[in-house]
Design goal:
The chain has 389 residues and is α/β, with parallel strands linked by helices. The protein folds into 2 domains: 240 residues, Type I PLP-dependent aspartate aminotransferase-like (Major domain) (Aspartate Aminotransferase, domain 2, 3-Layer(aba) Sandwich), CATH 3.40.640.10; 87 residues, Aspartate Aminotransferase, domain 1 (Alpha-Beta Complex), CATH 3.90.1150. Helices cover 36% and strands 18% of the residues. β1 and β2 form a beta hairpin. α2 runs antiparallel to α9, α3 runs parallel beside α9 and α10 runs parallel beside α12. Bound molecules: pyridoxal-5'-phosphate.
Length: 389
């Protein structure tokens, strides 16, 4: 009999009823160190007192009123994101896939209003992940996720991640833009080189293409900068955010330059729930915390500490771990042994991690961890790695 919850996930038996900082407490009575953060979502840990306060304060005033009206928190968050980024404008939605759908629409509309409706194709990279809606599945082009859901949405071309020549060769008179993740989160923690991102910017400028960065996973401090593309010193025309932006409250955002968004006039896009006062209250507080002096440099430092410990583990256990991958606190091992077994054993030891493509185990701790949490995680990884030798 089919479970009441549609069985689209291979779920663990674990159930949590409470979280605090980087820890989750399960109904089995055990405490777990959460280095998954709900897949990069609970960026400030669980039950952060300031997020709880922001949410409960807003909950007593106004939950929802629709985008037919002015929403103060939305204006505030948009203005702040604009001030902190390349963007001139922001659209709010509820998830990463929705943000990517919005990004794709902005790019296509830009060319359409310029009189070039034929320029609707987006070039994306193999190994990427952009969400589970029909367009974002087609954008990523992963056969295993598309299979059985009818013809993929048209308008997407694919090239190897990191290969500029392939990208350049794929550009046609129908190309609207390029979609790239600065670090491939789900795909297996491949990191785009700074040169690659710079060259993509140059390529887009040369051909009049819009550069779209999917920072749904890499954004909001995850790599030690507010946005991962800042490492490369280049800016996109459009960017998708979600995951860490709400600290656990569902939210997505499409950021764009004024030029890129010039076709996005009244009626061209919308969302019932997007930008709702509850989400805005929490995201504004997330942003306040993350932009406080010292917060991001601290993330960078702790990420460095974690990385060097992971490098040492990879060296010590070459029959278990092939290499360390990723950037900042989006980091992990490419495994020699099956990654799912590693994730399961780590969970047994009390550490929550997430599997990724290419046999990778991802560590995505909340950005608030300190050295003691790194040591605690390293101890558990060591114990698990040792169980193979
Ligand atoms: C998670 C993710 C998405 C999809 O986000 P949802 O909120 O699950 O729709 C899109 N792009 C990237 C890079 C992601 O990591």
């Amino acid at each position: 009999m089919i479970p009441a919850v549609m069985p689209t996930y291979a779920r663990s038996e674990l159930m949590f009823d409470r979280g605090e900082g980087p820890y989750l407490y399960a109904t089995n009575g055990r405490r777990y160190l959460d280095f998954s953060s709900g897949v990069a979502v609970t960026s400030l840990g669980h039950a952060h007192p300031r997020l709880v306060a922001a949410l409960t304060e807003q909950a007593q005033k106004l939950w929802h009123c629709s985008n037919l009206y002015q929403i103060a928190g939305q204006k505030r968050l948009a203005e702040r994101l604009v001030a902190l980024s390349f963007a001139d404008t922001a659209f709010f939605c509820n998830s990463g896939a929705e943000a990517m759908e919005g990004a794709i629409k902005v790019a296509r509309k830009y060319h359409a209003v310029a009189g070039h409706e034929e320029r609707y194709r987006l070039i994306a990279c193999t190994g990427s992940f952009h969400g589970r809606t029909l367009a974002t599945l087609a954008a990523a082009g992963a056969e295993k996720y598309l299979k059985g859901f009818g013809p993929p949405a048209p308008g997407f071309d694919h090239v190897a991640y990191g290969n500029l020549n392939e990208m350049r060769a794929k550009v046609s008179k129908e190309t609207a833009g390029i979609i790239v993740e600065p670090v491939q989160g789900e795909g297996g923690l491949a990191v785009a080189s700074i040169d690659y991102l710079k060259d993509l910017r140059t390529l887009c400028d040369e051909f009049g293409l819009l550069l779209i960065f999917d920072e749904v996973q890499t954004g909001m401090g995850r790599t030690g900068k507010l946005f991962a593309h800042e490492w490369a010193g280049v800016t996109p025309d459009i960017m998708a955010l979600a995951k860490g932006l709400g600290g656990g409250f569902p939210i997505g955002a499409v950021l764009a330059t004024e030029t890129a968004a010039k076709g996005m006039t009244a009626g061209t896009h919308g969302s019932t729930f997007g930008g709702n006062p509850l989400a805005m209250a929490v995201a504004n507080e997330v942003l306040t915390v993350m932009t406080e002096p010292g917060f991001l440099p601290r993330v960078e430092r702790i990420a460095h500490a974690l990385r060097s410990r992971l490098e040492a583990l990879a060296k010590a256990y070459p029959k278990v771990f092939a290499e360390v991958r990723g950037k900042g606190l989006l980091v992990g091992f490419k495994c020699v042994v099956p990654n799912l077994e590693v994730v399961e054993k780590l969970r047994g030891a009390g550490l929550l991690t997430v599997a990724a493509g290419e046999n990778v185990v991802r560590l995505l701790p909340p950005l608030i961890i300190d050295e003691s949490h790194v040591e605690e995680a390293v101890g558990m990884i060591k114990a698990v790695a040792g169980s193979w030798s």
